Amino acid sequence: MTVSVKQAAQVAELLGRKPRGLREVAVADAQGRPQVIRVASLVESTPFPTLFWLVDPAFNYRIDREEASGLIARLQQQVDGDSALQAGMAADHAAHIRLRDAYLSAEERASLQRLGFVDVLRQRGIGGIADFQRIRCLHTWYAAHLVVPNTIGGLLDAHWAAGVVAAGET
Questions:
Q1: 10-residue block means of pLDDT along the chain (170 residues)?
Q2: 124-128-131 Cα angle (round to 5)
Q3: How many CB atoms lie within 10 A of CB 53?
Q4: Minimal CA–CA distance to 48: which of 131, 128, 139, 145?
Q5: Any domain includes 13
């Protein structure tokens, strides 16, 4: 899939720089503005395990506030006490690895093999996470969730649906 000149310019404006490895706008809002982008798994001869990036400023701000309020720690505690959530996260990472692999071109596969980076992508899940039971970044989880629903994105949606807001938000 190609990225239009307009989309590339919108993404560059949202990021404040020209995007590296941009492959597509994976999710756009109703007005066509990019919310999530898909990035190549090999950028400038370096493995890049973060497949989806959240570029929507409103989502980023909202998640920034949630992370600052300690939501990651609270969600992690919830996951640590629930084997079904743990299994869901592991399944989410495995599905994400398969999806990322499906996007690889033959050329990218060959380059990853030649550079010795094949295992890096096989061992890293959503957001490049190696420990499939830890929540490291809500932004990467939510970006992936907007493309393919996942456990942590679902918990964040439920948190928002319950009307819980981060400190300082109205």
A1: 85 93 95 95 89 96 96 97 98 97 93 90 92 95 98 97 62
A2: 60
A3: 24
A4: 128
A5: yes
Q: How many domains does the chain have?
A: 1
The domain of 42 spans 5-158
Domain for residue 163, yes or no? no
Asked if 45 contacts 107 with a C-beta cutoff of 8 angstroms, the reply is no
> Residues with Cβ < 8 Å from 146, sequence gap 6 or more?
26, 27, 35, 36, 52, 54, 153
Paired tokens of 128: 């490049």
Ramachandran sector of residue 105 (left: φ over 0; alpha: ψ -120 to 50; beta: rest)? beta
- Are residues 138 and 73 in contact, defined by beta-carbon separation less than 8 angstroms? no
Question: Tokens 């990218």 sit at which residue?
Answer: 108
129 domain-assigned:
yes
Domain annotation covers residue 168: no
pLDDT in tens, 119-165: 889 999 999 999 999 999 999 999 999 999 999 999 999 999 998 55
Asked whether the beta carbons of 136 and 49 are under 8 A apart, the reply is no
Tokens at 81, concatenated: 């006490």
Question: Helix, strand, coil: what percent of the chain each, to 5?
Answer: 55, 10, 35
Find out whether 156 and 145 touch, Cβ atoms under 8 Å: yes
